[in-house]
Amino acid sequence: MEKVKNTVFPATFYTALTFMENLNNDDIVNSLEKQKQEITEVYKSMKAGYKLKKKAFGKVPDNINIIFDNMYEQCELQLKSIEAIIKSIKGN
Fold it and tell me: Structural domain boundaries of the chain?
């Protein structure tokens, strides 16, 4: 089974966004799109892993549900933030 990466919080990436007024908007958007793709891949992989656990356990224990719900929310929050930054850069 493929190892799933942890939800990433790239400190250098967020540091760069702090100083994004000094960066090229196209470069920022490209980096954000790449980060969005990576998080989306992790999110999809976690969803697939949950399906496997559900199949193996039948009824998934509450603690597993809580863990997966938290991981999903973390990914969704990051994706929402990335979308907001892209929208801000594009002036929409």
Answer: 11-90
